Amino acid sequence: MTSSKWLKIIPVAFIMYMLAYMDRINVGVLMPYIQEDLNISASSAGDIAGIFFVGYLILQIPGGILATKWSAKKFIFILMILWGLCATASGFVQTEGQLKVVRFLLGVAEGGVWPAVLVLLANWFTVKERARANAFWMACLPVSAILMAPISGILLKHFDWQTVLILEGLPPIIFAFVWLAVIKDKPSDAKWMDDKERTKLLSDLNAEQSKSVKSQGYGAAFKNKTVWGLVVMYFLWMTGFYGYTMWVPSVVGTFTKDPAMMGWLTAIPFTFALVGMVLNSIWSDRRMNRVQHVVTPLLIAALSMVAGQFVESPLLQMILLSVTAIGVYAPYGPLWAIPTAIIPAGVVGAALGLQNAIGNLGGYNGPKFVGVLKDVTGSFHAGFYFLAGSLALAALVTWILGRSMNVQDTKAPNKTTINKVS
């Protein structure tokens, strides 16, 4: 863990995606004010939160391909400028329709970043390190929520929601130039790396690639059953994940009317999510077991989400919201260690893009259905039952996928890393 790559690559990638995630989910905290100002229903609020993921679909597969064929570093730099401009523009909208258009464009701009970073990390970290690398990078998700909620709450005490969106859209434009200066696409480009360390890392990465199945081209990603299993699982997980993430500030808002206090309280579940996410990924790397470390947290999240609908005490609700946050966020590291370990390097960019593209449409599904059910029933209960069901199904699909990979491995004449990821 003292290797220079951990100090150079992970922190910069962490801050970069933290800024992206803040611009993606800050509408959750701002939504009550947006609803009041634009006079929109909970269903329409779900559309505003979720339409981001329709745009997010567009650059997913091209993003993975460009990162593999061209440069993850340069591609992400361009996208940072574009999403910063879109995030800032969202503060100038005057109607519900305009906000939906800008949110859609923000999704397009952010869409290629995720698969590009996963390709970048696969160029820098071995299979045995990858769950930790993914987890330390993806820890930016709960951290961004921890920071975004109180920051947005404090800003709301002094500015309207449009000004808050403008102020929170500027940082990625500035940080893009830090990214461009520090990040390198591969170890061979890094002058800051010790020669001995670079040689050892390249040797380890080349040895891993030599053992992987020969690439059959990008079309192979669409024919790979494992990829499609991961797509279905990811869609179900993201339905529960973003349904929870986008609406939890509104639930916490029922505890207090003070925007700053609401922001601080919203940060509590995401603080627990951060701890659970990192510990789960470290444990997964030590055991070299991925599937169990995805299935168990998802089931815990589903159960706690259901239990939360039967308690009225704000304290108990906050405890269960925190347990749910742990379960919803904890699978990130172990799950994203699976594709890069079992999919050939030549198609991994397209495969990751396919998984993230279709799977992230759950980010529209979750907030939208919670909003619709809120309008119909007048409470969040039915919506959270729906989210819990999605998380439970995601756990079931992951378990079935894990059993399938084990069967394939026992039939293979030469065992591969498939056994290790399941």
If you had to describe this structure to a student in words, what would you say it looks like?
It is built from 21 helices and no strands. It has 422 residues and is mostly helical. The chain is globular. Helices cover 81% and strands 0% of the residues. It has helices spanning 4-38, 42-50, 52-56, 60-89, 96-110, 113-122, 127-138, 140-156, 161-169, 171-182, 195-211, 219-223, 225-252, 259-287, 292-307, 314-329, 332-342, 345-359, 362-377, 381-411, 418-421.
List the helices and strands and how they pair.
Blueprint: H1 4-38, H2 42-50, H3 52-56, H4 60-89, H5 96-110, H6 113-122, H7 127-138, H8 140-156, H9 161-169, H10 171-182, H11 195-211, H12 219-223, H13 225-252, H14 259-287, H15 292-307, H16 314-329, H17 332-342, H18 345-359, H19 362-377, H20 381-411, H21 418-421
Helix pairs in contact: 1-2, 1-4, 1-7, 1-8, 1-9, 1-10, 1-13, 2-5, 2-19, 4-5, 4-6, 4-9, 4-10, 4-18, 6-18, 7-14, 7-17, 8-14, 13-16, 13-18, 13-19, 13-20, 14-16, 15-16, 15-20, 19-20
What is Rg?
21 Å
Strand residue content: under 5%
Poorly predicted tracts of residues: 407-422
Inertia-based shape: globular
Number of helices: 21
**What is the ordering of alpha helices and beta strands?**
HHHHHHHHHHHHHHHHHHHHH
Mean pLDDT: 84
Query: N-to-C terminal Cα separation, in Å?
Result: 24 Å
Overall helicity: over 70%
For the report, how would you describe the main beta sheet? none
Please tally the β strands and state the result.
0
